Amino acid sequence: MYFFVQSRFIYSAKNSIIALILLLAAGCTVQLAPSFSQNLLDGLTEANESTQILFQRLSGGSKSSDFSDFSDDYIEAIGKLKALEILADARDTPPISQRGIQWLRSRDVLTKLCPEPADCINPTPSILATTYERIEQMANIHERAGVDSLTVDSVHNFVSSQFDLVISFETALQR
Amino acid sequence: MSDVNYSELLQEILDVIAEKLQDGFAAIETVASKHAKRVAIQAELLAQSRISGQARNDDEVFDFLKGMLQDMIHSMAKILVAMTILTIETVWNSVVSVVWNAINTALSSAGLGKLQPPGIPEV
Predict the structure, then answer these.
(1) Is the minimum CB–CB distance between B62 and chain A shorter than 8 Å?
(2) Neighbours of A142 (CB within 10 A)
């Protein structure tokens, strides 16, 4: 059994190496990562700024009775992130990379991290979706019980980290 | 007339691979180290909240904070995979550019037309 698995792996690896050599010999340039979008990068920068203003207003915490003072800010932040998710998701995911991730997934690599191959090639939409879902959850908690300064700081740190990641990635796509 | 010089071309290919890998992994390291600091802060805030904050008596808040910490680790891993793919693309295209440039330099020295790189085949 071991030798069967090993020989299958060697066969697949050989095929991949041969395919790579053939591509190189053909002089093909490849696009493995998504295309750069200036609109998306500008939108992310703007959404980051408006979200930072929300957290600035919330710093120190807020009672549930004051939720209505912030509901429009929550709606605006969530709406911007949803619009950006659609924009980021509309980009084509290079098929050659999808096949690469599928190949890895068929060997039990990246299966949990990338439920869909596109999640690891074009990660911006799924990261933005997670971000607005967390802001929605925070708004629900705010409305129900209020939010103390530690909760606000935690969500602020989380949201800032997600913006840092996607802005760094989208900037790197400018090649 | 000049031919493609094997030794020079090999060195040029190795140099461009080293340079592009170094650039790519330096960018990945910068993103990862910045994010790792945020993960550490998040873990500290989670512990503080459970000990003396809102998460002390509110399990929904505790689960919420815990979930965000997990999301941060997932997001970082996804970005690292995506940036690695981008680095492979950059290395690949730089090598193709070096090889094709060497071929075309030799062809034009011989008075022949340049060889256009074909597009990527359908996969």
Answers:
(1) no
(2) 23
User: Which residue of B lies nearest to A61 if distances are taken between CA atoms?
Assistant: B54
Decide if B97 and A29 are in contact by the 8 Å CB cutoff.
Answer: yes
What pTM was computed for the model? Answer: 0.85
pLDDT digits over A11-21, tens only? 555 555 555 55
How many cross-chain Cβ pairs, A to B, lie less than 8 Å apart?
157
Q: At what angle do helices A71-89 and A124-145 cross, to 10 degrees?
A: 160
Q: Give the pLDDT confidence of B40-58 residue by residue, as tens digits.
A: 999 999 999 999 999 999 9
Tell me, what DSSP letter sits at residue A27?
T
ipTM of the complex in this document: 0.87
- In chain A, which residues have their Cβ closer than 8 Å to the Cβ of B27? 168, 172
- Of the pLDDT bands very low, low, confident and very high (cuts 50, 70, 90), residue A22 is low
C-alpha distances (whole Å) from A136 to each of A40, A129, A131, B31, B70 are 22, 11, 9, 26, 17
What is the gyration radius of the CA atoms in chain B, in angstroms? 25
